[in-house]
Design a protein that fits this description.
By secondary structure, the chain is mostly beta strands. 0% of the residues lie in helices and 44% in strands.
């Protein structure tokens, strides 16, 4: 039975035996159970009306062997199952959204495969229990597994495409001790209830090759000993508990959005790259801050909107080299030392120990300022020196010549180093 456009209901009131392939849209069963032959396949497809449609799957059969979903109308069609589905072999989502709504999915075969293709979505809502009995889980790099259910869950170990943890009720997600790479994005919240991802229990190493997003309702509790690695942007508008773990940004140019307190934080590159901080945010590093570029390949630290300031508060060890810094305020009481670390000052930085140029002001007496002259052979000159680097000492140089080009100064005096402030020099001293 092949369903085209429109609404078609296939109702079985007796016993139906399927030994081949059924391609269908909306299926309802009443009466006795349907029997599917071993290795038979039931294909659910969408229509071609160009609209986003939802197709309901009631209890069509007691047991399926191969079950596939393929939205021929694109990725917007939803196949929604609200019943217990027992699968003796494979589930394949080729296109569209397969939504398990308060379903209990289980596989009983020795080599069952749960597969979600690129662009397709597997979504869990209600009280659905993740199909944890399948032997193999295959997720395309651009597929999405989305948790919208209301029950606590241990996330299955798999190599995910995009992973969305967006519960509709307060839920704690536990990460397993081994969690494979997330090829795409990891999003925590907003479903919009509190979604807590707890990595502290089993200390996994989490590798996200896309964006990591902690939404307003989301909480991410880091590992005590594991490392969170993110290859794209880090966005935090929720809660991040750093435990005693490490966050490493291992992409090229990346952005940190929102304010976060990290334990250990690392970003090191071998080719020139930019780490951008959202203007007005503060990044606190309680443990070790590691920021490294390479010779001739600087890691540039920039505000998302120059000259607006981004703030950093490194409270522990600072390991830095080959940086180019701009628009940054170090809010920690201890200035960030740059001596010998090949750090470039691109301006508008506070409490980084760059050597600012001293200044001089309040030149007097006025009779000797701006090319004026006088008859005193030993006048006392007064002026004020200043240096924005508060701990620095300064020195001044006085030159007096009887020609305007200062080719052969009569007086050429350089003072000793001293604290900046009001100074005097008497000619002939």
């Amino acid at each position: 039975i092949t369903v085209g456009t429109g609404t078609v209901t296939f109702t079985v009131d007796g016993t139906f035996t399927n030994s081949g392939t059924i391609t269908t849209k909306t299926v309802t069963r009443s009466g006795t159970a349907i029997t599917n032959a071993t290795n038979s396949t039931v294909n659910f497809i969408g229509d071609v009306d160009g609209a986003a449609d939802t197709f309901s799957i009631n209890t069509f059969a007691t047991t399926y062997y191969n079950l596939t979903f393929n939205a021929t109308d694109g990725t917007s069609d939803i196949f929604q199952a609200g019943a217990t589905l027992t699968i003796n072999k494979d589930i394949t989502v080729t296109a569209g959204i397969f939504r398990a709504n308060s379903s209990n999915l289980s596989g009983a075969g020795a080599s069952d495969t749960f597969s979600v293709a690129n662009g397709a979505i597997f979504e869990m809502t209600g009280t659905t229990v993740y199909p944890a009995s399948f032997t193999t889980y295959t997720y395309g790099a651009t597929s999405t597994v989305r948790y919208n259910q209301s029950g606590a869950l241990t996330v299955t170990n798999a190599s995910y495409g995009h992973l969305d943890l967006k519960p509709s009720a307060a839920v704690t997600f536990t990460l397993p001790g081994t969690l494979s790479t997330i090829v795409g994005d990891l999003t925590i919240g907003d479903g919009s209830a509190a979604g807590i991802v707890n990595a502290d229990t089993n200390d996994p190493t989490l590798d996200v090759n896309g964006h990591l997003v902690i939404a307003a309702s989301g909480t991410l509790i880091a590992s005590n000993s594991g490392t969170f690695t993110v290859a794209s942007n880090w966005t935090n508008s929720g809660t991040f508990t750093h435990s005693s773990g490490t966050v490493t940004l291992d992409g090229t140019s990346q952005t940190i959005a929102g304010s976060t307190t990290f334990n250990n934080f690392t970003k090191s590159v071998s080719s020139a790259a930019t780490l951008t901080f959202t203007a007005g945010t503060t990044q606190t590093i309680a443990g070790t801050m590691t920021l490294n570029g390479a010779s001739g390949q600087l890691l540039s630290l920039r505000s998302s909107s120059t000259p607006s300031i981004w703030t950093i508060n490194p409270q522990g060890t600072r390991t830095i080299s080959y940086l180019d810094v701009k628009d940054s305020t170090n809010s920690n009481a201890t200035a960030i030392s740059i001596t010998g670390f090949n750090i470039t000052n691109s301006g508008n930085n506070t409490n980084w120990a760059f050597n600012a140029t001293p200044s001089v002001s309040s030149l007097a007496p006025t009779s000797y300022v701006n090319g004026s002259s006088g008859t005193d052979n030993t006048p006392t000159l007064t002026f004020t020196t200043a240096d924005t680097d508060g701990s620095d000492t300064v020195q001044f140089q006085i030159q007096i010549d009887d020609t305007s080009n200062f080719a052969s100064p009569v007086v050429d005096y350089t003072s000793a180093l001293a604290s900046p402030g009001a100074s005097t020099f008497t000619v002939g001293q």
